[in-house]
Amino acid sequence: MRAIVEFCINNAGHGTEEVARRLEQEHPDIDVVEYDCMNHCALCATEPYALVNGEIVSAPTPDELYDKILAKIESDELAEDGGFFNTSE
Fold this sequence. Notes:
Structural class: alpha+beta
Distance between the termini: 20 Å
Mean pLDDT: 92
């Protein structure tokens, strides 16, 4: 399944616009979407965040958010593939 990462444009002041651009450039296999508002205003006002496959991922800095987004996607892919307990082989 293709990962989707959603950003609120109102959170751009916390550096998420650069995170979105970096994801688009370095990981074209990830769908990056920006919305006017995602209704997470309390979080949006305090730190960088995004929704990764529908789940909130946040971090104190844009660089940490980028790393956490990639880690979440990797974790989701492992879970989808059966992770360490995959017995399909």
